[in-house]
Design a protein that fits this description.
- This protein is an alpha/beta fold.
- The protein is about 40% helix and about 25% strand.
- It contains 13 helices and 15 strands.
- It has helices at about 1-25, 30-35, 40-55, 115-135, 185-195, 260-265, 275-280, 290-310, 325-330, 330-340, 345-350, 360-375, 380-385, and strands at about 55-60, 70-75, 80-90, 90-100, 105-110, 140-145, 150, 155, 160-165, 180, 200-210, 210-215, 220, 315-320, 350-355.
- Strands 5-4-3-6-10 form a five-stranded mixed beta sheet, with helices on both faces. The protein has a five-stranded mixed beta sheet with strand order 13-12-11-14-15, with helices on both faces.
- A hairpin with a 2-residue loop joins strand 7 and strand 8.
- Bound molecules: zinc ion.
Length: about 400
Amino acid sequence: MADDLRAQARHWRTAADALTLLRARSGLTRRELGERLGLGSGGVSDLASRLRAARLIVERTVSARGAGRPTSTWHAHPEAPVALAVDLRHGDWRLGVCALDGEVTMLVAGVHDGDPDRSLALLRRRVTAAARSLEGRVVSVGVAVPGQVSGARLLQASMLGWRDVDLARLGAGAGVPVLAGNDASMAAIAEARVHPARPAVLLHLVAEVGLGGAVVVDGRPVPGARGLQGEFGHLPLADPGLACPCGAHGCWGVAFDPREVARRLGDPTPADPRGYLGGLLARPDVPDAVLRLREDLATRLGRGLAGLVNVVDPDVVTLGALAGPVRDAAPARFADAYDLGLMTLHRDRPPLLATATAGADAVLAGVGLTALDQTLDAARLASWAEGR
Ligand SMILES: [Zn+2]
């Protein structure tokens, strides 16, 4: 009997490991899963039937590359556990469902007035209603925020003007745990899992309202001790006379803040910061002052990115949100500054550099997958299977 229980526990640990791999890498085949888990074809077949019987996965046959036999890829069963994923941004929010294979279904989006209590009460109602409609399948809620987080606490989000806010209340009505994540780190997870080069070390740099990002190793962002990692925009690469809202001086990201851009160009403070800067970068016929600004931003981006590559040694670099358009608005200036800043070893063999490809739902996918990572352990899977 005890042996039986031990074998069961071992099976569910393997199942939890398999699902973790599935979340970290899009499109893994059954064969690759077997290799990563150290299972032969019999072992991986047993595992697949166990997961199918528990209504956790379905399999789809795919033709093998080269002369190999066909294999299959694993996808979320339509009745499998899910996480709700919230992307809370300056001025608006989005709520989606993240399946255990990273597929995101958008549910609803809306605006908020920036007041933490009112905004979170509104979101909690939406989360509770969504959980109810999913009939017991929601195991956790992931919330991505434009700031620094620790567990379910938002430590600081300068763009929202929020400090020390408990986000756990979002899951109270649904009765599930909440996990918070920095939005740039969450997007980086999604980039790493879908990038065709299968990066071992991915550096994701995001320009949105300032600069941020993450280093992702084997599908997971490199953590800090207090959740403060990835604040690339606060490298002191700019004029030390320039004060940053973070409290430091000379921060690299200040020049990319649309409000600072508007100040430089003599424009009023933009109501929609992202739209304002995006428009400046994309418009075809612009005055000389805007052309000079584009060149300046592309130069600053190239120079700082070279520094990050020298430090991190990534095999892939992805440019998220407006970082791609900043580069593309003055590509020669970007390339000059980037090359000049790279160590010879990197200049001779530079990492792949590309605009982010995970799309508009990257943040929702990243935070949903992270919330599932935190919840779907072996014990949870075993009790899920028992209830089927
Ligand atoms: Zn700063």
